[in-house]
Amino acid sequence: MRCIALAQAWQDRGGNVTFLSHCDNETLRKRIIDEDFDFIPIEKPHPDPSDIIQTLNLLKRHALCPMPSAPQWLALDGYHFSPDYQKIIRENGYKLLVIDDMAHLDHYHADILLNQNIHASSLHYSYDRDTVKLLGCEYALLRREFLKYKGWKRKIPEKARRILVTLGGADPDNVTLKVVETLNILNTSDIEVKIVVGPSNPHKELLINAMRHAPCAMRLLHNVSNIPDLMIWADLAISAGGSTCWEMAFMGLPNLIITISDNQADIAKGLGKVGVSIDLRRHEDISIKQFSRQLEGILQNKNKRQKMSGNGQKLINVQGTQKIMGTMFARQIMLRRTKEIDCELLWNWANDPEVRQSAFNSKSIAWEDHQSWFIKKQNNPDCVQYIALNSQDVPVGQIRFDIKDSVAEIDYSIDKEFRDMGLGRMLLKMGSELLCEQEENPLSIQGCVKKENEPSNRSFRGAGCFEATEKAIDENDVRNSHTIYQFRVSPTKKLG
Fold it and tell me: What is the pLDDT of residues 187-244, one digit of tens each?
């Protein structure tokens, strides 16, 4: 489901999508095809060597007819994709997005490493030097059918009477049966329950038999395509700790989480801590009696459900998928020298509140002053400035080098719509390399960054710069200091 969300967003940007998968479930295949995505089956998945051969052949075929509006990416979502598999993809020149949950591999070879879970930033990852990490719920993948409910507000009743149960596509341990048995012993007739079972669930007959003894209205639903509608209908949900958690949070649906696999434990724990969910822990560790006590308590507690609903909608917003798309498209940037038409664009970027805050002089810049400054910089042979464009020719940032006595001082900024995408380090690295190609004499390239400006500090470190020294901005105020980052590079070939 999260790959479908990613694919929908890519499709909305004008790109084509192909699912390459070992999926042998006809219902899921049909869902993918109905979304207008291509589907190619993998008969023998990795670590069988035929997997990587088939994948590389597919990527090669697509590379022969690239679309001008979209770069080519491979997204991997599966715990079995080893570091060696990832490395081969990158060594063959393809862009790679790896979706992860647990940081279970020794190393990740990826252009982008995505973990949308609440605990993601606390995990220790080993990754390539140029990897961009997108970690946390701000990158939650939501499908189109959810995004249309942006801003929707839930009404919280005095008692929760409508309960949605959804425990994943397969539920191999039949935890759904435990939920049904718990609802049965509540012996409450004024509630209505809808139970969603996935296309791979083998326990439907057992569930139907258990539901015959229910004291309340209970329905079993399968092959469901209207999950947002069911979440609007429900007052409360009982769920596993998978991607459904982000959908419930977005919809403001109070919920209880039962952990049914190891990769869900930290999600349930994290959501419990921030008051979005009630963490019931592992399904083996909670008795039906304990479960029923928790369930009965939350059914009656309007205030707690109200807080859970609000906390969930604060945690998840509609921008996550778009941030991921922006990063994927922005990873292919090019630089060009500034032109006269860039004067107003640079002025707007320079007066962005965040840019002014991180600058050594935080005052706003008047238009007339900027025009005069821009003309001087354009006519100064010791000033080199580039505009960064993404794959759709949209300006995403700028980098300027003021050269004096073989030292090039860096100034750079990123458009506010393209921040948190790893562009800073790319811009610093690409700009410095391009400058050196055009210079005949060795240069020392350096940049001064306020100590509290953590995004820029990360960008300089990520670009391979080292901290040369640290100085006070004002010698009388040692608290406000800046770091000088530096790396020495030599010219290669003078460009004509």
Answer: 888 999 999 987 777 888 888 888 988 899 999 998 788 899 999 999 999 999 988 9
Residue 316 identity: I
CA dist., res. 384 & res. 335, Å (int): 12
Query: Which residues, other chains included, contact 345 with Cβ-Cβ below 8 Å and sequence gap of 6+?
Result: 387, 395
**Interior CA angle at 465 toward 462 and 467, to 5°?**
115
CA–CA gap between residue 254 and residue 235 (Å, rounded): 7
Tell me the H-state helices in 359-422: 367-379
Taking CA 433 as the corner, what is the angle to CA 447 and CA 425, rounded to the nearest 5 degrees? 55
CA distance 160 to 39: 41
Long-range CB contacts for residues 151-158, cutoff 8 Å, separation at least 24: 152/232, 152/251, 152/252, 153/252, 154/232, 154/251, 154/252, 154/253, 154/309, 156/235, 156/254, 156/302, 156/305, 156/306, 156/309, 157/235, 157/302, 158/302
Q: Tell me: the pLDDT tens digits for 468-483?
A: 666 554 544 444 567 8
CA dist 290 and 7 (Å) reads 41
Cross-strand partners of 112: 97, 132
Give the pairing of strands 334-337 and 383-389.
Answer: antiparallel
Task: Give the residue-averaged pLDDT of 11-18.
Answer: 88
> Is 230:194 a contact under the CB 8 Å cutoff?
yes
Residue pair 270/247 in contact by the 8 Å Cβ criterion: no
Contact 431, 463 (CB under 8 A): no
Q: Tokens 């921040």 belong to which residue?
A: 419
DSSP H helical ranges for 215-360: 227-233, 244-250, 265-273, 288-300, 302-315, 320-330, 343-350, 353-358
With a cut of 50, say whether residue 26 has pLDDT above it.
yes
Residue 418 in contact with residue 397, Cβ under 8 Å?
A: yes
CA 451/CA 69 separation, integer angstroms: 39
Query: What are 321-370's pLDDT values in tens digits?
Result: 988 988 887 767 889 999 999 999 999 999 999 888 887 778 899 999 99
